[in-house]
Write a structure and sequence with these properties.
mainly beta, 4-stranded antiparallel sheet
Length: 131
């Protein structure tokens, strides 16, 4: 009986060593965006990001001259979908949803490229890339 129990312990230890590296915590890519003014006039742009419960997790107002650009370094978030609320000059608002995902996945967090135009019917041109 003792030899069987000893063999069991050795096998158990080997399994634990083999799978010990599989318990790492997966990291979610931060949200980020690029904002640029492609218009011929200066614009004030407010970017607010809401979580799934519509709680604001980021809000910043930018005064952009023509051809001026800004970029966020990364907004740490949890896995999920977030809503960008874009407001131009205090009165034109558009929303866009973006996904935050694991850093090592092929489809990790989305990066928004937001271009401000002088077209009042469509003041934001948005394109998306995956981090």
């Amino acid at each position: 009986m003792k030899i069987g129990f000893l063999t069991f312990l050795l096998v158990l230890m080997a399994v634990m060593v083999t799978f010990s590296g599989c318990t790492e915590i997966r990291k979610v890519d931060p949200l980020q965006f690029y904002l640029s003014n492609k218009g011929i006039e200066a614009h004030e742009v407010t970017v607010e990001i809401l979580d799934a419960e519509n709680v604001s997790i980021f809000s910043e107002t930018y005064e952009l001259d023509p051809e001026e650009k800004v970029h966020t370094e990364g907004i740490e978030v949890e896995l999920g979908t977030y809503t960008y609320v874009l407001t131009l000059d205090g009165n034109v608002t558009r929303t866009y949803e973006a996904k935050a995902d694991y850093a090592e996945d092929v489809s990790s967090s989305e990066i928004l490229y937001i271009e401000v135009t002088d077209n009042l019917s469509n003041p934001f041109e948005i394109s998306v890339a995956v981090a």
